[in-house]
Specification:
Layout: E1 4-13, E2 18-26, E3 30-38, E4 43-50, E5 54-62, E6 67-71, E7 74-76, H1 83-95, E8 97-99, E9 102-108, E10 119-125, E11 127-129, E12 141-145, H2 147-156, H3 162-175
Parallel strand pairs: 4-10
Antiparallel strand pairs: 1-2, 2-3, 4-5, 4-7, 5-6, 5-12, 8-11, 9-10
Length: about 180
Amino acid sequence: MRWQTHGERTLYDSPWVRLTLVDVDIPGHGRIEHHVVRMPAHASGTLVHDPDRGLLMLWRHRFITDTWGWEIPAGRIDAGESPAQAAAREALEETGWRPGPITPLLDYHPTNGLSDQVFHVFTADGATHEGPPSDPSESERIAWVPLAEARRLALGGGIGDGLSLTAVLAFLVERQPDGATATGA
């Protein structure tokens, strides 16, 4: 059952987001106008893991939902950057730690029923501390969270950000595919 599009018109447009109405024919239901959020740039994040420390994470407030939670460093991919370059840059800018070699973990559409947004998630084994973050407005604190604690946070609501939650859960599954409980750092 493939939905057929017949056109699209823009309701709002900025460098950050575009809201459109798409004329779409839904099989068995007819044509409707469907609101779609278009994202002009993808986003990248890095899940930095150190076997002795755990995961490098940010404790931050999100004003839109008025919530606090742990997140991995992430952000918008700038023009001319690859997803991996953006992931490494964001980690350094937001944490002051330069991630080790970047490896792809997954790409996904977080809200594909409403938006064309794409998240690229990478892992890095280890990081080198370069100094304070260049953008201190990103978080209240930066910490290495042991894997067992990250697992507890992910399952208990302490990681509410979708990019971060998906990254942490995918990492835990990848590193512990037999379902063993994540322990230690």
